[in-house]
Amino acid sequence: MVQFPEGAIVYPDPDAMPTGDLGRASWAKAAWDVIGEEEESIRLLAGELGVWVAFGTIRPLPTAPAPRNSLLVVSDRGEIVARYDKRILSHTEATRLYSPGSEPVVFEVDGLRIGCALCIEANFPELFDQYEALDVDAVLLSVMVDDAARAVVAQAYGTLFNYWIGYSVPAQFGRTAPAGIIGPGGRWLARCPATDRPGLAVMDLDLDASDHDITVGLRLARPWRRLARAQSRGAGLFD
């Protein structure tokens, strides 16, 4: 699977867009046909190459007052199998750009259950706790921000919830916080070079691996922490 950042196809600057009602950005001149063509080219190429792809895009919805900031997931057969709509928006996104999504998304690749999150949602641990309760093996966190702290928070989720984290960031922010893959114990297993040039971080996700991090994180820490959380909730510690 290839994971791309939030807004991989387009990430508009609200200050550069025309303004509509109540100061919100107007999407009247958005080239949805061009965005659709780009999405279609990725879908076809994924099927041709036989790889899964997750990439950030913007989706207009007829029932919503503004488009959704989304992560599209395409299978190795070139089929769109999931669309995650960003649920927690920044103030600017919420007041000027997008409509929020409402549901977590989990899809499966070769027996691995994978969840999705976008950018500022890294600041809301309840979303990642929810994915742990949904029994995911990994979460794809695609961002569009130059923020070293966000990568540290992502690493913390690998430690706290004992699943893999795919952290994708645009190349121009790579000097601050390079893209990479975090293991269930919270350690960076693979990471792009700390440059502003495109790079690849590659890692096998193997539930049966005998690696120390996998053994401790998946087989020991995660079951025990689930039990501890359940006992704590039963005792009213989390009320």
Helix run count = 5
Q: Structural class, judged by helices and strands? A: alpha/beta
Encode the helix/strand succession as letters: EHEEEHEEHEHEEEH
N- and C-termini, Cα separation? 39 Å
Q: What is the topology, as strand order, of the major beta sheet?
A: 5-6-7-8-9-10
Shape: globular
Largest sheet: 6 strands, mixed
- Detail the poorly predicted runs: none
Report the strand count. Answer: 10
The percent of residues in helical segments reads 25-40%
- Rg for CA atoms: 18 Å
How much of the polypeptide forms β-strand, as a percent range? 15-25%
What is the residue-averaged pLDDT?
92
Quick structural gist:
By secondary structure, the chain is of the alpha/beta class.
Describe the structure in your own words.
By secondary structure, the protein is of the alpha/beta class. Helices cover 30% and strands 21% of the residues. The protein has helices at residues 32-49, 91-97, 125-133, 148-161, 212-234; strands at 2-3, 53-59, 68-74, 80-85, 106-109, 112-118, 138-142, 164-168, 180-182, 188-191. It has a 6-stranded mixed β-sheet, with helices on one face. It has a 4-stranded mixed β-sheet with strand order 1-2-3-4, covered by helices on one side. α3 links the parallel β6 (112-118) and β7. The protein is globular. The termini are far apart. The model has no long low-confidence stretch (mean pLDDT 92).
